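Entry 14. Ran structure prediction on the chain below.
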Amino acid sequence: MAHEIKNVALAGASGSLGSHILQALVKAGRFNVTILTRKVTENVPSGTAVKVVDYESASDLVSALKGQDALVDATSVPDPSLAIRLMDAAVSAGVYRIVPSEFSSDPTNSKGRSLPPFQGKAKALEYVQKLADTGKITWTAISNHAFLDWGLRMSFLGVDLQNKNIEYLKPGTTVIPMTTLESVGTAVANALIKGENTKNRICYICSTQKTQKDLAELSKQALGEEGWKSMNVDTEDAFNKAMAKLQAGQVDMQVIGDIIRFSISTPGYIDRLEKTDNDLLGVKTMSDEEVKELIREIAREKTIA
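Output, structure tokens:
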């Protein structure tokens, strides 16, 4: 008999991704959602429960997870110890399904997975797989590759919409699967609704697959051809410098960002998705016109700000 997932606990609900997952879970109308948080918060959707927890306390986490069918981990901590602590607590509390804090590139790509920003995710996924092998829990991982809207808002993908500036990540011709945050949230909700179809496996989704040059061209079409500046960035050189800083203990967001940008722009570290779970998980594949409209929306946000 299929296990119905009704009660869902969400860790990391206040983050960029977690907030979209929360919205999708509530919108689905199928779940009793409990937010796990470090401190009292009032800005939560109607009908959503909140439990203040000490993430360092195993007993506190177990108590908070009692009666939950699923735990969605949307925290974004590089150190896997928190993810593993949440998993252990979920097992002790009798939780049926874990959605680990994966939400990145293909976990089966060994080259990409070997890079420091992804090593914590690799350890966490390996850990939950071992728990599942012993029958203690089930899991579903979501692989969405790059975040499309977040990447455009933050100019992380090398396209600065506000200043009309493009930094081509050498060579700029690598196909990058990209997914909107909203679509990731939708995928999580549907993965729990269709729990038997997503049990103990990685689900692959993407809103679009474009090279960086494609994305730059769509940005020009959306915002007008005039006024753009561009330059080429040697991502391998930036990667080598970032790795040297990391090994010297000089870790900051620039270092992590340069390593990730290298991974999404270098063949072999990222691959085009030949098959996705979009249909299963209700993720829409965006047309070029829809991508351009997203670009215009984000550009308007920046102009207003």
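The chain has a mean pLDDT of 96. Will compare against last week's run tomorrow.
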